[in-house]
Every structure is written in structure tokens, then in C-alpha cells.
Amino acid sequence: MSSDGKAALTDREVEAIEAAAEALPRRRSASIDALRIVQAERGWIDDDALGATAEQLDMSRHELDAVATFYNLIFRRPVGRHVVHVCDSVSCWVMGGDRVTRALCRRLSVEPGERTDDGRFTVLPIQCLGACDGAPAMMIDEDLHRRVPIDGDALAALLEDYE
Amino acid sequence: MTDLTKAVLTRRIDPGGPPPNLAEYERSGGYQAMRRALRDLSPEQVRREVADADLRGRGGAGFPTGKKWSFVPTGKDAPTPRHLVVNADEMEPGTFKDRHLLEGDPHGMVEAIIIAAHAIGASQAWIFLRWAYRVAHGRLERAIEEAKAAGYLGRDILGTGFDLEIHLHVSAGRYICGEETALLEALEGKRAIPRDKPPFPQQQGLWGQPAVVQNVETLYNVPPIIERGAQWYRDLGRGDAAGTKIYGVSGKAKRPGLWELPMGVTASEILELAGGMRSGVQLRAYLPGGASTSFLAASQTDVPLDFDAVGEAGSRLGTGMLILLDDHTCPVGICANLEKFFAVESCGWCTPCREGLPWTRRVLEGIEQGEGQASDVDLLREQCRRLGPGRTFCALAPGAAAPLQSALELFEEDFRRHIEQGRCPWEAAA
């Protein structure tokens, strides 16, 4: 239970975490799956959700936080409704990927990792997306975009589909 | 020009098209190698065929697959369950070969897993897949469901008494998960910190039980070896090198991409398939197999790209996916990008890696921004020694040192020009 008395996890989250935990030899081995389940519902992992998830997996909240903070794709801070992952690795860098990040951030008036004022986007650098023949590459949520334009206007047009 | 491309691992892949479903896969001879392995061959016979084929791991280290399997305890008293773990965490910068295989031929993955699991007596298989591979995820899930419905997974497969379940784990993202013991930690739900060895994973891998970790491309070699035999497979490669390899190109080539070719082709041959360099740019050097390999100079494009020859030339074959450095791209800048990657991805366990990589990154970024000191070149050389083999549990730090150390040899002049001019000459020219 969180401080305001509401359950920190929904029934749906609890059920999904339970299914993941039961499928594995140790409950705590489902920690990453469980964090992903919670994050899919609410975009990021707040302290209350972290505590409730840890409890369900028979872990301390600190043990689970050690896992949560280790992985690049578990967010312990709020992110926008859409996360734009711009490839930050070498092949994309050679093809101008660093300028994609700069153009996007300037356009959205954010620094990497920040959320836009309207809550719509967070821009995050990500390690090599494995789309190096289509550099520069980025993902918006689950969609891969290859050979993205290095141009603020053209990038803004790509973002239009993501409300 | 004769067509060098081969279609062994990629024989069922229609680039851009949907992958074969179960019926299509079987119509083209799919799951025949599985039938032969399960019905006609003992686990020991499968292991021997793979060892005789000289198959070496395609994830980067080139360890002989047959030898890896020979360390798994077998026999009546051997611990159970045993695990086969597929490393599908393809996060080596510049590498996109496993994505191509998984998206294009997911049943090929399932069949390879069944045969390899039979060879080591594993009843549990785990695919450790990176999050970014969303398309591969959906296609693998579907292939696993289809194989289950056909009776190729589950209990008593083909009435042989062999049981196998495949689990799909989606990683939450860290480069270090590609290191096999770190990957096993991640599968156990922990921080992915590499383990000290021994014990080796084949003895105590997952939850204290034996586990074998194999790269995706390595496993795709197994069904063709079982179908056509070790001798046929060895003859696919050039000289002493066995089999085929998926090679690729990224950077400023006319047509970046990937091709299945005989093991041991040269970078010049691959570059020709990529249409050569874009007009107006010249090749200066290339990383032969990902971010953690040493640069080879443009004058070394005739080195056969097999494990041994690339090693003798002073680098590593790694993943065999070439990253090109051209004359319009700053060699200090590329090193700064590479070392930033390694600094961010260090798991933080060993001091030389945790502290040395951010330091190295800051020195490189300083030089690139025109704040370099004359002593920085020697400092970077010293850092490469401190990051070198033997000082850390895993190979991340030595891998980070490799491209930098070679860049300092090949491009020392360029490092010095940055420092003397107090700016990046490439930036100034842009």
C-alpha cells in the first residue's frame, strides 16, 4: 500500500507478475520481467510501485532498486508518453547521429533525458540499435526508423504520428 | 565478378519479405536436420559432427563450439536440468547480423536450438533477446508457438523421450549482458555483473545448473552441419577456415549491408559488394568486427577475415561486421565515441574499467574540443595498458582499449595535430 492508502499495483499488474514469477525456478529471477510489466502500464517505476513489486517477489526494495537502476531501459524517473531512442553508437555517429540528437533536442527544447513540457516526448541516447546499414537510426517507442533525416523540420514531421 | 555470396545460414531468408511460417519452412526441408539428429544420432554423435566441422563461436571470441559442448557433464549422474542459452543480445556496435537471421528465419533458430539442446542434454532453452529487436521478438514467439503445436517442443519430442521448453527473455538493456556470465546473472534476475571463473557455466551456469551460452549465428550453423556433414561444411570456407560467415559493412560505403560469404574472404571483397566508398571519400581504416576490435589500416584490406589471420594482423575477427573510418571522419572523434560507449556500459565492478574508462573518455573529448595537452598521447597509451588483459574479470576493458591503442598507432599524427592546433581539424574543415 502506498502512503495515500491506494494499492501500489493494479490487479492486472499483480497477476502478470505472479505468472512471470511462477514460471521461473526462483521468484526473484522474474525481477526484470516484473519491472517491465509495471513500466508498460505506467511508463516508469515510482517508489511505491518498486516497493510493492519487490514485496511480491520476496525481495527487499533495495535489492530490486539495484536491479532497476542497472538496466538502461528501466526508468526510475518519469518519461514522456513517447520515448525517442536515438542511436549514440559508432556507425550512426560516423553518419551524423550526434547531429540527430542535437536537432531533436533543440526542436523539442529539452536536454537528453528530460520530458517535454506537454509530457509528450523524452529523447534518450541508446546504444547501437543493430540497424547500422540504415544509419543514422532511431526508435520511437517500438518503431525503428532508419536513415533518419538530420534536420529539425523533417524530424518533427516524423514525430507527428506520435500524439 | 563472380558471385561470392553463399546461402547456407540465409538460405530461407527473403530480405524485406515475411519469414517462412512452419509449413513453408518444412516444405523447403526445414526440421529434417532435427528429425535426423533426434532419431538417428546420439547426443555424442551430434557433438562430434559439430566438433569435426570446426565450428567456432560467431559472437566474437571464436571459441570452438564442439569443445564448449564437451565440458558439459553428461551421463546418468550429471546434474539436471541443463540449459541451452541463446545470446541474442546483439549489442556490439556496428553489428546487425543476428537481427537479420532472427527476423528472416525464426524457425531456423528454433530448429538449431532443438538440435543443440539434444547434443548437450538440455531440457530448458532460453533466448536472451535485446529489447530493440521488436520484430524478431514477435516472429520468434510465433515460431515457438507453431513448433510447440507441431510437437517439436514440449514433452517426448517425436516420440524420442527428449523434452525441451524454450523461454524467451527480453533484456532491459546493457552491453555487458553479452558477456556470457553476466548474461546468466541477468537471466537470474540480478545486476549483470560478470562472474569469476571457475566454475565455468557448463558446470554451474544457471541457478547452479549446467548451462551453455551460444551466439545466434553460431547456432544457425548447426542444422546445415547435421544435414550435410562436417566435411561439406569445412569446405565452404577458404583455406583452413571452415563454413560461411555473415559479414557486413557500415559507414560511408555506397551500399552498406550484409552478405553471407565463405569464411576467410577479405575486406576488399566485402567492400566491393558494398559498392566501394561513397564518391569523394577514401577509406582510412576499418574495425573488422565491432567496437571492441583493433583498427586495421586501409592497406590491410587483403587480410583474410578469419579468426586466425585477423589475429595475426593485430586485431580480432569479432563479429565480422566491418565499421569503416573514412578520411572525412575524425579519428579522435570516433575514439571519443567508442570510449564513451564503453565508459557508459562498464558494469562498474572492476576499478580499472569503472574509473579508467570515464577518464579516458574525458581526455579524448578534451583533445577533440581543443583542450588537449602534449602529454595526453602518452597518457592515453598508459590508459590502454591499464585497461589491458588480466586486470579485470571480463573482456570489456581490454575490448575498449583495443580500438584506441591501434588508433594511437595509426593516427598519432592526427592526435598531435588536434593538440597543436587547439581544435579538431575535421571540425574546422566542416
Question: Short description, anyone?
Answer:
Chain A has helices spanning 11-22, 31-42, 47-56, 61-68, 90-94, 97-108, 152-159; strands spanning 82-87, 121-126, 138-140, 143-145.
Could you walk me through the main structural features you see in this protein, from its secondary elements to its overall organization?
- The complex is a heterodimer of chains A (163) and B (430).
- With 163 residues, chain A is α+β, with helices and mostly antiparallel strands.
- In chain A, β3 and β4 form a beta hairpin.
- Chain A has a 4-stranded mixed β-sheet with strand order 2-1-3-4, covered by helices on one side.
- Chain A has 7 helices and 4 strands; from the N terminus they run ααααβααβββα.
- Chain B has 430 residues and is of the alpha/beta class.
- A 5-stranded mixed β-sheet of chain B has the order 3-4-2-1-5, sandwiched between helices. A 5-stranded mixed β-sheet of chain B has the order 7-6-10-8-9, sandwiched between helices.
- The mean pLDDT of chain B is 97.
- Classes of the chains: A alpha+beta (163), B alpha/beta (430).
- The interface between A and B is large, with 41 and 56 residues.
Beta-strand proportion of chain A: 5-15%
Largest interface, with counts of residues having CB < 8 Å to the other chain, equals: A-B, 41 and 56 residues
Chain oligomer state: heterodimer
Sequence of secondary-structure elements of chain A: HHHHEHHEEEH
DSSP summary: helix tally of chain B: 19
Strands ordered across the widest β-sheet of chain A: 2-1-3-4
The number of helical runs of chain A is 7
Distance between the termini of chain A: 32 Å
Low-confidence stretches of chain B: none
